[in-house]
Amino acid sequence: MWTATLVGYRQELHYLRAENEALTVAANPEGEVVAFKAIHARDRTVDKGQILVFKDYVMNHGNAYDNLTGICVAPTKGLYLFSGQICTEVGQTLFFGLMVNFNAYMRDLPHDTSSRECSTFTEPIVLSEGDRVWVQAFRDNENIYEDEHRWSSFAGILIRNL
């Protein structure tokens, strides 16, 4: 009796592993890994139109993000997921947005009069090969706040090739 149950579990495990592998290949048929996360804003004071450059890589698989320009270039057509965090000092604002090929895809204006504010974003975006994505400031002379507990960041990952 126990042997039959164990054999059944092994067969089910084998089936689930094969199904998982098939789904993984279907989601990303070329097996290309594109994933980056960069932290720490290079400039703490930013002006209108300025790209926020996150200078320190946590990871950069596929080399899609350039920490000198602050721009992610899609290496392949696909569904991507971008996220980030921008922090401001008490009583200050920083009007920023996620840009795709010079078009605002998302905008935010964090502001808190009683504490430091960190604003986060998560955006799914379908990109074509060569599309460019970055975080940009929309007003002059605004400040990014960072300390040992609050880091600004920008991250992206290819979810599925299209």
TrEMBL record:
Keywords: Secreted, Signal. Residues 29-162 form the C1q domain. It is found in: Secreted. Coiled coil: none annotated. InterPro entries: C1q_dom (IPR001073), Cerebellin_Synaptic_Org (IPR050822), Tumour_necrosis_fac-like_dom (IPR008983). SMART domains: C1Q. It comes from the Eukaryota. This is C1q domain-containing protein. The lineage of its organism: Eukaryota, Metazoa, Spiralia, Lophotrochozoa, Mollusca.
